[in-house]
Structure formats: structure tokens, C-alpha cells
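[09:14] KT: can someone run the structure on this one? pasting the chain below
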Amino acid sequence: MRRSWKVLLVVTAALALTALVISAASAISRTNTKTLNMRLSVNFLTTESAELNPKGAPGDELVIYANLKGDQAAGRLGQVCTVLQAEDPPSFENSQFQCLETGELADGQLTGQALTPVDKEAASESSFAITGGTGRYREARGFGTHADNGATLTLHVEYPAG
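[09:31] RB: done, C-alpha cells below
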């Protein structure tokens, strides 16, 4: 009977040590991040719609390409938004889109995605999730907002330091 208590004690100690190591590693990974807050102006170069179905029907796409400019950064933005729901008459103001976007900055790329609000007039900003990145922004997470009819892009990004 004593031997089973020793085995139980060793197993319990090993599990506690494992939990401690995982907790410490998680805390280190959270504290070993950088945060980037950036406000950029968006200069639209291309805004085209691809009507794959009857005008404004689900599946149609809106393709956007723009230059980004800020105090300390410049880059490009590519975005494709797919129509999910459109009212009659269809327009950007009364349609809902699923949007995927990639922003390219000097040190890497950031990816994002969003489900846009149906009523654009009620929403002064549209937010999106930052879902990843490349280069300096690998494993990035955070959020962004498009404001002023898309002319301003604000980013809050956390990414691994190093």
C-alpha cells in the first residue's frame, strides 16, 4: 500500500510541475510581444465590382486596391469582399459583405477579415479582426477599423518580439 502512495505522489508532483512549466511558458509568450498602433490614410486606386450573378446577388465581389500612408509607414492594401445579402436596389450601403484583406507594410504583411454591417449609414466605422501576418508580423493578432468611408485605417497589432 505504501508503494501506491509513493507512485501517486510522484505522478501528482510531475503533473504539478508540467502545469507550472506550461503556465510559465504561456506567460513568457504573452510578455514577449510587441504592440503596434498605427493610423494610415487610404488612397483608393481601384474599386471594381465583379458581377458573377444577377446584379447585387450573393456571390458578387467588390475588389479594392489602395496605397497606405502614415507618419512612419507606407504600404499597400488589397481587399476582396463577397456579397452575402443585397437589398433591392443593390448598393454598397445596403449590402452585407464578407471581406478578406491583406495590408503590406515595409516589414511584412497583415491579414484580416470581417463581416460588414448591413446598414452602413448606422455604422460610422467597420471593424475587422487581424488574423495573421508574415515577416515581422508573423503570428500577429489584433484588430483594425476603417473610418471616414474607408479613407482612414487604424490598426492595433500584437506580434512576437524578435
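[09:33] KT: thanks! Strands lie at 33-50, 61-69, 74-86, 95-105, 108-115, 125-133, 141-147, 152-160.
[09:34] RB: yep, looked fine to me
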